[in-house]
Design brief:
- With 127 residues, this protein is mainly alpha-helical.
- 54% of the residues lie in helices and 6% in strands.
- The protein has five helices and two strands; from the N terminus they run αββαααα.
- β1 and β2 form a beta hairpin.
- α2 packs antiparallel against α3 and α3 runs antiparallel to α5.
- The longest helix is centred in the middle third of the chain and has 21 residues.
- Keywords: Membrane, Transmembrane, Transmembrane helix.
- This is DUF3017 domain-containing protein.
């Protein structure tokens, strides 16, 4: 004779795989069946303050104003770092990607690198 079956199903029971596959953070039980929960889109928040400055910097670079464009890009990244440092995660919106320390460090490093590279670039034509 075989071993007696347990009363409760084990988590690795293959007959329950379809039901377990649908469980997760984005599903919920509604009236006895599993349905997809609506996915909330994050607010971009203060990201819209930084985006036009970055767009102007890219536009300036596209029209051969490399120094102006580089400094605008550095200023936009620096402003993004300040906003991310000051505001809480809920208000920072699209600027809050990782932890506050990592976000600010990356944005400040990017701003300093851009400002340095823009200041040392030599745009004089070759003889």
């Amino acid at each position: 004779m075989g071993e007696p079956q347990p009363r409760r199903c084990r988590p690795d029971d293959p007959s329950h795989a379809p039901v377990q596959h649908r469980r997760g953070c984005r599903t919920r039980r509604r009236r006895g069946r599993l349905t997809e929960a609506p996915v909330a889109t994050p607010k971009l928040g203060w990201w819209w303050v930084v985006a036009p400055i970055l767009a102007l910097g890219l536009l300036a670079c596209a029209f051969d104003r490399i120094l102006l464009g580089g400094y605008l890009l550095a200023a936009g990244a620096g402003l993004g770092a300040i906003i991310r440092l000051v505001l809480p995660k809920a208000d920072a919106g699209g600027l809050a990607v990782r932890s506050r320390l990592v976000d600010v460090t990356v944005l400040v490093g990017f701003a300093l690198a851009l400002a340095f590279l823009t200041s040392v670039v030599d745009l004089r034509p070759l003889p």
